[in-house]
Amino acid sequence: MGLFTKDIKSMEDLYLHVLQDIYYAENQIKKALPDMIEKATNRDLSAAFKAHLGETESQIARLDQAFQLLGKEPKGTTCPAIDGIIKEANEVAGECDNKKVLDAALIAAAQAVEHYEITRYGTMIAWSEELGHDAIAKLLTTNLNEEKAADKKLTTIGEKKVNLRAAG
Ligand code: ZN
Ligand code: FE
Ligand code: FE
Ligand code: FE
Question: Domains of the chain, with CATH numbers?
Fold first, then answer.
């Protein structure tokens, strides 16, 4: 959808637009995670990224199902927010000279990603219920719960392992 053509005329249009936004975001995250797995030095952290890559692939499959339920082709629309979060992550990681500090930077970046996803899924679930897309609400709730669990896991890894060593 273009910036200058006002192509969002109804809640259904807006709903589809945000579904395409999160679809784009999940695909960008899928592309970014292998690099984060490689950069992470803490074992738990790289394992967490690896597990979340697998989850991200399942999440994309659930979004494919959501498009199918709407009778639409799965399609992404550029999300400048996720592009910005990933760009910032790469810039900061590139400036980290210390491996433990790099791990802390990777956790911070990954949690920014999770929080973006959590806000998007939260909105989409509320709109799904409002618009009567109950089956989609269920699919998106599974994705939301995985994002929340991933965020929590990153907090635990950060507190217990990485951040303390980076400070010490
Ligand atoms: Zn648009
Ligand atoms: Fe995700
Ligand atoms: Fe977006
Ligand atoms: Fe995620």
Answer: 11-167 (1.20.1260.10)
